[in-house]
Model the fold of this input.
Amino acid sequence: MTQAVVAEMSLEVVDMKKLFDEDLPLALKKHTAEAQAIGATFQLNVTGAGQWYVNLTPSGPFCVRGVEPADCTVTIREDDFRALLASPKTMTVYLFLRGRLKLDGERVVATKLYKLFSFK
Done:
């Protein structure tokens, strides 16, 4: 994948604060059972945008600002996160192999993260 393709994919304008503070919490309410079925917690650190804790367990689902212990911690730059949202299957491997998507904790849990953004 060329740098031009990556740059083009990351140009999609996504308001990260709105995504995590408004859109995602609403989607989680609409899809409670599906979200809880993921059965994991995530700490999402989006450099340049903020940090969010996402609980997708039976005690959730919810998404809040801040840092909490989680099953999987994802650290990514804001522009790379936009590219990931635009093309999750392609960009996940691309960014991970280039060290631009960092994972700590249970990597198997990270494979479930794409489901989170499929809720509308």
Observations:
- The radius of gyration is 14 Å.
- The chain is about 45% helix and 25% strand.
- Residues 17 and 49 are 7 Å apart (CA to CA).
